What we know:
Number of helices: 11
Organism: Streptomyces sp. 900116325
Pfam families: GerE (PF00196)
InterPro entries: Sig_transdc_resp-reg_C-effctor (IPR016032), TrmB-like (IPR051797), Tscrpt_reg_LuxR_C (IPR000792), WH-like_DNA-bd_sf (IPR036388)
Structural class: alpha+beta
Strand order of the largest sheet: 6-12-11-10-7-8-9-13
Protein name: Helix-turn-helix transcriptional regulator
Largest sheet: 8 strands, mixed
Distance between the termini: 70 Å
Order of helices and strands: EEHEHEEHEHEHEHEEEEHEHHHH
CATH class of the domain at 115-253: Alpha Beta
CATH topology of the domain at 115-253: Endonuclease, Chain A
Mean pLDDT: 81
Amino acid sequence: MKDDQSGPRACDCRESSPDRPCEAALAAYRRALLAGSLPQDGAPACLRALQLVVTDRDAPGSLIPVPPETASFAALGPIEEAIGRQRRNHRAVRASLAAFEELYAEVHRLEQPVLTRLVGRAVISKALDAAVGSCQEELLTAQPGGGRPSHVLGEALPRDLRMLRRGVRQRTIYQHTVRSHRATLSYIEQVASAGAEVRTVAEVVDRLIVCDREIAFVPAPDEPDTALRVQHPALVSMVVRQFDNAWSRSVPIRPDGAPLRSSVIMSDLQRTILLAVVGGETDASIARRLGMSRRSVAEHMRKVSEQLGSNSRAQLGYLLATSGLLEP
């Protein structure tokens, strides 16, 4: 019998255990010690395997008992030799792999890291300046949160204008709410006049910047003032697909004096707000996500409530869900 954990055993009868032979083997060895010998056909196989009995040259057909201490040299010698060989093989393989590990580390030290954590606004700003400054073909940006602070726009404008003068194509997505934010509109008018393409959508999920489809910057989840610089081709490609998907659903802002508001934009924005209401979101949560004030969210809801004759938020949610207004 074999043990799953310890492998083959010297005694393979059912009564044996990994660390103790069967009673039949012990009894046979006892008889051999007392009688001085044991008939060959009456010796359990494990006694021979453990080298505890040997053939009696003077009495063919008989076996002579051997002291366990003497038998251990013959029984354990091959096992210890095999263990020694495995240990030598283990050391040799480990030494070979160590040489390859050094080579691997040396090669990869020369490569740029595919993911870099940037902490602090100053560090992030310098990294962005370097990436945008070396951008040669295309810059993609998505900016959630509505209108951007004036000082941020002031820092970005000279950098973006220099890039556009080099012939780099810039595509930027904002949320619809920037269409009433003067500082952001002023920035958009200037970069659009220099050739940038700007669109808006009801909701921008994440902030992202992609340079030449080779390097991307994305915010680090749940870490304020922290960003990730991504240089792995597969990850950058995934970020670009996210941008292209939002771009296909967005509405252009044209610097030709066209009205900044339209029924399409208002419908899109209202539909996003109302879907959030049906989903159980609070006014504060909706406002944060869409980059607008709670008062504006409440005003949109008030107008729809009047149209549907709703007297409460719960009733509004029910009427929206059953009216068909939110169907694509």
